Amino acid sequence: MRWWLAVAFALIAAVTAVTVAQFFAQRSERAFRERAEDLAVGASIAAADVVVRAAREGSLEQSVTAIAESRRLSVFVFGSDGALMTSSRSHRVDLSAVPGREEALESALAGQRYISSVEDGRLTVVALPLRGPTIAPVPVDLSAPAALLAYASRPELAAELGIVRDKIVEAALWAVLVGAVVGLLVAMLITARLRRIGAAAAAIEAGNFERPLRPRFRDELGVLGLTIDAMRERLRDSFGRLEAERDRLARLLERLQDGVVTVNRDLEVEFANEAARRLLGRRDLAMGDPLPDPWHELSLRQLAAGLFAPGARVAQTRLTPRDDRTYAVVGLPARRESETAILVLTDVSERERRERAEREFVTNAAHELRTPLAAITGAVEVLQQGAKETPVERDRFIAHIEREAARLGRLTKALLVLARAQTQQEAPRLSPVELAPLLREVAASLDPAEGVGVEVECPAGLAAHADRDLVEQALSNLAANAVKHTERGRVVLRARGARAAVLVEVVDTGPGMSADELERMFDRFYRGGRRDADGFGLGLAIARQSVRALDGRIEVDSAPGRGTTVRMVLPAAGERAA
Residue 148 forms beta bridges with which residues? Predict the structure, then answer.
């Protein structure tokens, strides 16, 4: 840029210099021509006066010769008839060599002044009338001089004009040189500033947003620099926000339980979170690695390749590999502008298990309800078969029916209250519940194994702020579970106060539970390895949900061979009332 800009400045300077030189040359020529004409006219007028006097005195030829030498003029005198009255050669110039002599003579004889210069004013022809009010108002006679023709040669004026022209050309050349140098300097200054702007733009293109651009001048380039610097700051802020959002998104994706994998058209991994690496069995999966294909039941690479097909839609599938796990795979097709497809991998094994458990809930709940119903039905059949005729048997079976019916009512009510509490449709009706009678009532309903004692430890007057049916249901299930798994020793139902809470404990001397059993003991329908086939794993789940509905919690202390302590922590009646 600095070279062509210097050439452009030189051309501009050259055109300007030539224009100025032409103008000044013309002015100079005109000035020199006018000066030569003025000198010639002045000398001619002086010679005309001398000629008129000399003609009167009769010394015309001698006076013309003298004036010609003194004035450096070629002087020729003519009569009124146009006849030459002096020599045809004056001051080394012949009359025939004078340009325009006929026209000049005619003008002078007609009483008009004639002035003409040729060769840039070096040669001047002047013709003056010698008759008139100014020069000779009253002619002596008809033979007196009537016109004077002067021919002046001024070579020094031409030389001066040549010098002026040379100086003008020299000045023009200097102007071109100075213009080229100035253009080069200006171009170097502009290119230096443009280099700074280009370097700043290149730094922005390379991702470096910390290189400031501070122009010194507020001209067009300065405004351009300020605009680029403002763009740099905005891009820095935008990229900073994008990086923050990307990091936040990456952290969020890393915390997801679902596996997320993004792949390009070459089926190379662009991103994979920890869950995806775990589900795919590739802990070392990194960006740029080919997408693995870990399952025989589904070609993951084939599914991903289909996401780049024109008009591809969301792909969903499930598979169950040999490890008895169930995986859901969702593929989001690539958009034209992103060229990236997304695979979402989800381990739905737990969800499948819960859905299966929910499906079994109705059956198992019906079985739980069927036990008291079967007892009632059996007692009615025995009574109908003749036991009603025996007062002792009749009273015993009627009491049995009454007890089982009450148990059935409590279970139904507890399940209904639990369901409403879980859906938050209806809160349990809380009131002070005295615990000592309740513990004794639950203990009396237990049927422990031979040699297993059931004990109750509870201070009189201790009460919890709870729903009695829910507390009874939870305590009954916990106690029944403890009795079922205690073959010797004792089962203790204990209640004690602890600050603003009441602790209701069921302590047994059974075999205890392992860590895995402790983790799953409250799951619905879960039965540990030592559970018998008569249970359905619903009692402990109901107990936990009952306590949660009462805004309490259940704690378990157990170890293999050391027995089990299940503790219900409930709000105290006095604290809640206060």
Answer: 77, 128
522 and 384, same structural domain? no
From residue 185, alpha-carbon distances to 181, 235, 506 in Å are 6, 34, 99
Q: Do the Cβ atoms of 460 and 436 come closer than 8 Å?
A: yes
Amino acid 90 reads S
| Token pair in block for residue 564 | 């089990």
- When divided into structural domains, the chain yields a total of 4
Instruction: Tell me the per-residue pLDDT of 27-65, one tens digit each, with 9 for 90 and over.
Output: 766 776 777 777 778 888 888 888 888 877 777 788 888
**How confident is the model over 57-86, as pLDDT tens digits?**
777 788 888 888 877 788 888 888 888 888
pTM over 0.85: no
Report yes or no on 326 lying in a domain.
yes
Same domain, 419 and 435: no
What are 169's two structure tokens? 């050309």
Contacts (Cβ under 8 Å, ≥6 apart) of 358? none
Within a domain: 265: yes
Task: Return the axis-axis angle of helices 539-549 and 391-422, rounded to nearest 10°.
Answer: 60
Q: Is 224 helix (H, G, I), strand (E, B) or coil?
A: helix
Yes or no: say if 317 and 341 are a contact pair by the CB < 8 Å rule: no
191 in any annotated domain: no
Domain-ending residue, one of 427, 451, 467 = 427
Question: What is d(CA 339, CA 307) in angstroms, rounded to the nearest whole number?
Answer: 10
Looking at the structure, tell me whether residues 413 and 454 fall in a common domain. no
514, 564 in Cβ contact below 8 A?
no
Which residue range is the domain that position 121 belongs to? 2-161
Q: Which residue has the tokens 């170097």?
A: 188
